[in-house]
Each structure stands twice: as C-alpha cells, then as structure tokens.
Amino acid sequence: MLEEGKLIKEEDLPYEGVRGIPHIREAGNAVRRRTGDWRIFRPEIEPERCVKCKMCFLMCPDSAVAWKDGPEIDYFVCKGCLICASVCPVKAIKVVRDEGPDRR
Amino acid sequence: MKDLIDGNEAAAWGARLCRVRVVPNFPITPQTEIIEKLAEWREKGLWDGEFLPMDSEHSVLSAAIASEAAGARTFTASSSQGLLLMTEMHYVASGMRLPLVMVNCSRGLAAPITLWPDNNDFLSLRDSGWLMFFAQNNQEVLDLVISAYRISEHREVLLPSIVNMEGFILSYTREIAEIPDQEEVDSFLPEYAPRVVLDPERPMSLGIPSLHEYMYFRSQVHAAQRNALRVSERVFAEFEKTFGRKYSSVEGYRTEDAGLVFVCAGALSTTIKAAVNALRKEGVKAGMARIVTFRPFPEKRLREILEGKEKIVVVDNSLSPGRGGIIHSEVSSIADCAGVVVSLGGKHIGRDDFVKIGKKVDGKGRYWYF
Fold it and tell me: Are residues B257 and B173 in the same domain?
C-alpha cells in the first residue's frame, strides 16, 4: 500500500503486479481486518463499578467483548457502536472520544 | 423554513417543491433515503405524485422517460452501479429532448467494491447530453434541483439535468438548510407545459430511427447545451432575486489577487476553501475556482478567472485511467495546469493535505495524493 499523506508524481506511481489486483486468497481472514479504526467513540470499562452481569458480553454484535473473569474489550475489533455502554445496568462503561493508536 | 437536513432529504425537498408528478425509483446506497423520504411523504399525504418502484435502474430511467414524454414532471435518483446501469437510457432521454431531472449521490465504481464517494460515476455521463451540476453542500442540492427544472424545461434548452452530491459527505451529513416556501417555488417554476407530448388521442412516435438526419439531431443537442449556459446564468440571476442565494456556472473564491488557484468541483471545494484560508495566513496568495456547471462546460467564465494565474492546480476525485483526473483534462484544454488525483473511493483528505498539495505541486505536472 502507498503511504498515507504522500504526494507523488504520476511517473513515480509504481506498478506492483498481482498485488494490485483486489483479491483474497484465504478464508478466515476477518481476524486480520482491523475494524477498530472505524471508531469515533471508545467504550471503556470501569472494573470497580462492574457487577459482572455479562450484558455487554452478550449484546456486543461483533463479539468484541471477551469474558475473562470479567469483560475485556478487544479494541482491534470494536467498531465503537456503544451498545455495551447503553445496555450496562450500572453505567460501568464510559464513553470517550477515541484518538488512540487503534484508530487511525 | 430552516431545518437540519442531510443531502438526501434536501434532494427530496427539491423534488417535492417542484411538484414532481412521477418518481420511478430503485434503491441503492447512498441514495435510498431520497426515495424513502418521498415514499414517506406520499403515505402522509404531503406529496401526491406517482411513486413507482421498478425492477432495475434501467427500468427506472425507461419509466422516467415515458412519464416525462407523457407530459408529467418527473424526478428520480441513483448512484454508482445503478447510474451506470441506466446509462443506455441517459442518451435516449437527451436525444428525445426530455427535461427530466435526477440526482446522483456519487460513489466509487467496482471493482473493488466501495460505498464511499468519488465522481467517476457522475462524470461517466460527460458525453450523454445531460446538463450536469455539482453541488457543494446540502443547500445547493435543493437549490440546484429547483434551478435544474427551470433550465431544463426552458424552450431553448429542453434537455435532462443531473445534480450531483458526494455520497455520505453530503448525502448522509446533516446541515442547516433553508427550505423555500411552496408559493415561492411556484412563482419561480411554472407548471410544466411541454410542446411535444405523447397522447393517445393524437398518436406520435418519439425517438425515431433516423439515418441521414442523425447528425442533425445530435447537433441540436449540442446547440441546446450551448444555449443552456446562457439560460442558466439568467435562471441563476432570477433565483437570486427570488430566494436570495447566488449561483454561477463557476464560483470564484478569493481569486482576484491569487497566484495559486485550485480548480475543483463538488464537496471537496468546501475543504479546499479552508485550505485557501490557511495558505493565505501563511502568506501564500491562494484562491479557488469551483465548477458548478460541468455540462455545458463554462469555458469562458473559467478562462476569465484563470487568466494570467501563475499556478493552477486541478483537483480531481475521479480518474480516467491512462489519462488522469477527468476535470484536469478538461481544464488543461484552456490553461496550463497541474492535476492531482485525490480521494478516490472517498479516501480521507483534509484541509492540511490541500495546504501541502498547494505548496508542493508545480504548475504543470500530474500528481497523485494518497
């Protein structure tokens, strides 16, 4: 891929052979697709308030909330839909504007 | 009335205020909300036209041609792949000299598949004979739909019009827009009074086979396009008198004393205006010429603005592979200019990117900005 924010002269546009053909060679590749960079807002769990009801874990449409003793959000996957924050009965998930490294 | 509406709703308002009688339609992202809005208004009794869900975009434009030929003011909308599926019929509509109006929400063309905007779909109609207008914001979508009917239906023009807005950037973004009163629009746009109408009482054939005369009829489409430039300036002047908003075939922004002039069209121009202001703060005398009327091409007005400028940079979010930016190749026929291809498939570009482009690009090369 060409570098973000790069200005190049037309004559320097590289020809990259089959790399330039939009295709996918293997199945199960969604694990490598970073959807975290879609986020505008980021849900953040406050563990001290969490009552471990599992609502966020159950309701996340992308299975971005894993369960390891308590909820853990995978920010590589989380698109920031904030359903978790809205279903949390004790408001233990706060919403912050996302400018972190997971979001381009 | 002022309201917070997105580009799709602005387009639907334009159609409703023009009292369109027939809307053949087919859904496609990012345009679907236009027809959803009209369907909703019809259910509520706020708009009483014919709402015709069709089986494809080709059928949509075929039905639109038929209803317009039968004397009903007709509107439709599409995008991207849908617009391309209609294309065969676009040439029929202009050749039959039917002044229907449609809106395109531009979206990059497959492959690969994208939903995000660039203007290749819209610009594929370059040679179709349609009048082509670029809106830069939601207010303009609404205003240009109203103006387009006036220009299209003018007896010296009689050609269909298409108004373009970038999908998502305008179609799904809310802005405050002034929605004119129905009475105002009625006074600006009289009832459609066609002179050649399909009527079962007086049978007639339209779009006839024509071998020797073919070139004559196509020359008439060209002559009508040339008239449209004059007519549109008159209509825009009258629009300003009625509604208080000023339009022109080309908008010049801070161009008078500018050494560097960006040439662009559509929604990117609002970002470029911000870049022009940022460049001026740094002491670079920048300006911008925005093409509103792409067809007919406003050659004279553009030439006046670009006359004697040191550096002209044409910004295209479209591509003719093997040639370059589509508007660049048009503008390079009237002035020495550089071309930069940006934002294909809606790739993000912001104010600071244009500042960088303005500083780094020379006055003649061809560039890509990623």
Answer: no
What DSSP string runs through B301-349? HHHHHHTT-SEEEEEES--BTTTB-HHHHHHTTTS--EEEE--GGG---
Asked if the Cβ–Cβ distance from A10 to B367 is below 8 Å, we say yes
Question: In this structure, is residue B8 part of a structural domain?
Answer: yes
The mean pLDDT value for B150-177 works out to 97
* Chain A contact for B368 (CB, 8 A cutoff): yes
Residues B270 and B326 in one domain: yes
**Domain formed by A29-97, architecture:** 2-Layer Sandwich (3.30)
Report yes or no: B322 at the A interface, CB cutoff 8 Å.
no
Total of domains in chain B:
2
- Residue numbers in chain A where pLDDT is lower than 50: 104
- Taking only the tens place, the pLDDT of each residue in B42-88 is 999 999 999 999 999 999 999 999 999 999 999 999 999 999 999 99
What is the average per-residue pLDDT within B108-134?
A: 97
Mean residue pLDDT of chain B comes to 97
pLDDT digits (tens, 9 = 90+) for B308-321: 999 999 999 999 99
Long-range contacts of A5-9, Cβ-Cβ distance < 8 Å, separation of 24 or more: A5/B353, A5/B356, A5/B369, A5/B370, A6/B369, A6/B370, A7/B340, A7/B356, A7/B357, A7/B360, A7/B361, A7/B367, A7/B368, A7/B369, A7/B370, A8/B367, A8/B368, A8/B369, A8/B370, A9/B365, A9/B366, A9/B367
CATH of the domain at B275: 3.40.50.920
- B349: which chain A residues are within 8 Å (Cβ-Cβ)? none
Coil, strand or helix at B130: coil
B116 in contact with A, Cβ within 8 Å = no
Any CB–CB contact under 8 A between B361 and chain A?
yes
CB under 8 Å to B149, separation ≥6 — which residues? B18, B73, B99, B101, B161, B189, B192
* Same domain (yes/no): B9, B52: yes
> Which residues of chain B have a CB within 8 Å of the CB of A3?
370
Same domain, B300 and B174: no
Cβ distance B365 to A10 less than 8 Å, yes or no, reads yes
Residue at B120: amino acid letter: N
**Looking up tokens 């359903």, which residue turns up?**
A83
